[in-house]
Amino acid sequence: MTFKKSDELREVAKTIPADRLFSETDCPYLTPVPHRGKRNEPSYVNFTTEKLAEIRGLKIEDVERTMALNFFELFGIGEQAKTGTISYKIRNSLYLNLTQRCTADCVFCTRLTKPVVQGYNLKLDREPTAKEVWESIDDPKKYDEVVFCGFGEPTLRLDVIKEVAKKIKDAGGRVRLNTNGHGNVINKRNIIPELSGLIDEISVSLNADSSEAYDDICQPLPMFRNGIYGKIKEFIEEAKKHISEVQASIVTHQRGVDETQCEEIAIKDFGVKYRARRYNIVG
To answer: Is the pLDDT confidence value at 283 over 70?
Structure first.
């Protein structure tokens, strides 16, 4: 993977799901760059891992943590990731895990079966209090951003978002909210104005180009099925009025979804940023 002409192999390595990932070298012959041509040794696996982190847009610590958990799950050697994780670091962002509850049951999501992302087990025995969430953050200023995310829908705990986000902002941090866009329906009011000044960026999971495709892929709870896709669009439109940066995202390679049309909806119809991501690559 480190060899100059291995572009195709690097592209494969870039898209392997995180929980199916290992790194190795083959001694004594397949020596990675920068020692290619010399006798190989096991310690050179670090160069392979560093290249893997680079092409996946991660820090080497992220890849090492993921592979350590993969090693435990395959061989039973090492330590299992502890449950109850409230805050977790990926690259130079800190993510906050508020809940495992959600108003959708997306076909690509492992929230209820294997809530693991980049070596962190996000299974919660109970939902953390606002105080516990805040105390799990060491210094908001040391991170590029602090993100309300996890494997559930954060706006189910709107009061916690507002309380913790205010403290993060007061401490000089930057805040992003990742949401499925159901927040106004969940809370039975327009919550966007309440987030003004607290949230710097909001990323909304659009995930489809039509209401029918959305219901098929995201499988919202029955009470949310009647026109929820339209409500998500309204949520994005409202977010533009109060949040400085708005993004619409999809998870790629979902059946019945026209990804080109999704991009046009985000950029041309709404004038917001667009992100297409392959599930379980960064998290």
So the answer is: no
